Every structure is written in structure tokens, then in C-alpha cells.
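Whiteboard transcription, Tuesday session. T.W. wrote the C-alpha cells on the left side:
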């Protein structure tokens, strides 16, 4: 099995997130505020979670997970180990664009950070999972959000996933 350049970079980013995750606050379903960050309330983002998704307790700090039947929204926040995230962002974008397993790869306009969005191509098996991935890189943090459902349910949840993705905002983002 050949490992792509993108998979190596993504593994490094996720390892950095997992091993340096800040303390997460448990929030009720609906509007969520993320783990500790630079603003007065100690949160670095807001996101509106679609109705019906219930937050599940997590053993790891910095991880927030919501579930609705077989669909999940999984959000992880970690520290960035680079002086600037711009180079990492450009490499991730280039690698995602070259990866034949992804479609709809695009940069997102995120005030205060760099956003990348891509979708897994349909696996061809209705029971296999498919995800919309969003990676946000700020000067000090990496945020990964995965909107996941079985392929057979993915299209019916796309508008809910997209609404949640569009609601994501970094707090105290510099213009």
C-alpha cells in the first residue's frame, strides 16, 4: 500500500493535534464553543451544530463529537508547532488537490485563519463512511472538523453539514 504525500502531512498534523490538545469545555447540543483560546471567554471559535446532533462525552480534552443516528461531527483543536501556518496550509492544499480520493477541494475564506475543505469521493459501497473535511489553520492552532455519514445517507445530510460548516467562526479573528 502506497502512502501519499498528503497522508503523511495529514498524519503529522493530526499527531500534533492529538498530543497537544488544550482543555475542552463540555457544551450542550446546539451552539458549541471550542477549547481554550485567546479571547476573554477562553474559547477560540463558535459553530452552530444542526438540530438532532447530540454531544457525546469524550475522554480526550480538545475533542468534541456530536452524533445523530449514524452521522457524526467530529472537531479537534490542537497547537500549531510552526512559526506560521501559511506554508503548512499551502502544502495541505496542494496535496489534497492531487489526491484522487478527494473531490471539491477548495480554499475557504476564514477570518483569522486559512481554511481548506474537501470531500471524500463516494466509496461505491452505501454502508461505507464518507466525509466532508474542513481544516482551519491559524497562527497558533489547527482545527479539524469532519462531517461523516454512511455514503447512503451523506447526500441527505449535506445541507445540514454545509450549514454547520458555514456557521464556523473564529473568535477575536484579526481582519
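and on the right, the sequence the group agreed on:
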Amino acid at each position: 500500500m502506497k502512502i501519499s504525500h498528503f497522508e503523511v502531512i495529514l498524519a503529522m498534523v493530526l499527531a500534533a493535534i492529538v498530543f497537544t490538545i488544550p482543555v475542552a469545555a463540555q457544551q450542550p447540543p446546539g451552539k458549541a464553543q471550542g477549547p481554550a483560546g485567546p479571547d476573554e471567554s477562553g474559547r477560540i471559535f463558535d459553530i452552530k451544530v444542526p438540530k438532532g446532533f447530540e454531544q457525546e462525552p469524550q475522554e480526550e480534552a480538545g475533542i468534541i463529537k456530536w452524533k445523530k443516528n449514524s452521522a457524526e461531527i467530529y472537531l479537534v483543536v490542537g497547537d500549531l508547532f510552526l512559526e506560521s501556518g501559511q506554508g503548512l496550509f499551502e502544502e495541505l492544499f496542494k496535496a489534497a488537490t492531487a489526491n484522487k480520493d478527494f473531490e471539491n477541494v477548495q480554499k475557504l475564506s476564514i477570518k483569522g485563519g486559512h481554511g481548506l475543505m474537501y470531500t471524500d469521493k463516494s466509496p461505491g459501497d452505501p454502508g461505507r463512511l464518507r466525509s466532508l473535511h474542513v481544516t482551519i489553520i491559524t497562527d497558533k492552532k489547527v482545527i479539524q472538523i469532519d462531517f461523516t455519514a454512511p455514503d447512503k445517507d451523506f447526500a441527505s445530510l449535506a445541507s445540514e453539514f454545509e450549514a454547520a460548516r458555514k456557521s464556523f467562526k473564529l473568535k477575536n479573528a484579526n481582519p
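Someone added at the bottom: Residues 14-41 have pLDDT under 50 and may be disordered.
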